[in-house]
Specification:
Helix content: 40-55%
Radius of gyration: 21 Å
Number of helices: 14
Shape: globular
Structural class: alpha/beta
Number of domains: 2
Length: 410
Amino acid sequence: MSGLFDQELALLRQANLARQRRQVAPLIAPADLSLTDEALRGTTYLINGQPRLSFGSNDYLGLSQHPALIQAAQQAAARYGVGATASPLVCGHSPEHEALEHELAAMVGLPRALYFYAGYAANVGIIPALVGKGDAVFSDALNHACLIDGIRLSRAESHVLPHADLAALESALKASTARRKLVVTDAVFSMDGNVVDAPALLTLCERHDAWLMLDDAHGFGVLGAHGEGTLSYHGMAGIDGVAGAWQGRLDRVIYMATLGKAAGVAGAFVAGEASMVEWVLQKARTYMFATAAPAMIAAPLRVSVGLMRDDAWRRTHLRALQDRLRDGVRQAKLPWALLPSDTAIQPLIIGSNEDALAVMARLDEQGVWVPAIRPPTVPVGTARLRISLSAAHTMAHVDQLCAALAQAAA
């Protein structure tokens, strides 16, 4: 048996598709950072023991090492302990979890929210809770793996449609005779950085009596006037409530977002019409049969939601970093192109797996860490460097990255 795995692993390596874990730790422990070290917070790490300026994390707002979040986690651990001890439906749902759910619902302007311990678990639980045999799911070809797995687990009829092709989606919805129809899509595509046309999708769902599920893992905290995410970005809903034109129209929206990226901690939530959320609570196996995240996770998330809402400078700075990067890449006249993106995700398309790994290695030699992303995460022939910007980065950090890219291309 081991010989079989050896052969398969050898094939992965030959195709430049083998993955490698790296040990990652902050260069300086967050508790030891002073105000003069602020530029190191959430940007500079020891990667396999070597200091590197990192553009690889999803810590888009730079909150993962924020002192207020760390303090909230410590206080909650002292109050509740370090484990939840059981599922939320047994004894794992603390006052911190309850308050967090109310605050998340208010943040996105939807009636109710339900917290899950992980984003992957949320999606593979939500979709089978909503649809099953006799139903149909319509999925964008570039959807994240957890959405794909959730669809498979549901055993509903699956329709995989070309990326962002509204005409193809309408045709498929019109032809379907399924009992229930669910359109599932990333709100911000994790490897491309483009934002879905949520208003157009909801209009199609209304026309063909379908539900719309948005996975806003990479939009929540980053997009919208207060970081409320993609619905706010499109002027549909947010802290100020549902926009007038969308009153009474969001009851068919299932909104999901993760809390381990811009929020800086861990977990995810689903929000929407109250009875839908209650149904997910009653039926999602990954909610019912898994130990809850501890209160020491929920407590810092409550602080994070407040910072996302109130610290508008983080998003303003993030947009300025995006502009600086795009200007720097343009001036460097690189042989590779950045995909258009209005988000913290800035993909630099390289092409082959081998070339992407080589560019990543050249940057690493210069003390800059940007991960190479290869199939099956992205389509064959589109291997890329996924540059992730954070509000913790400075303009000088982005300039350092651009200089390293220019040197890597020389």
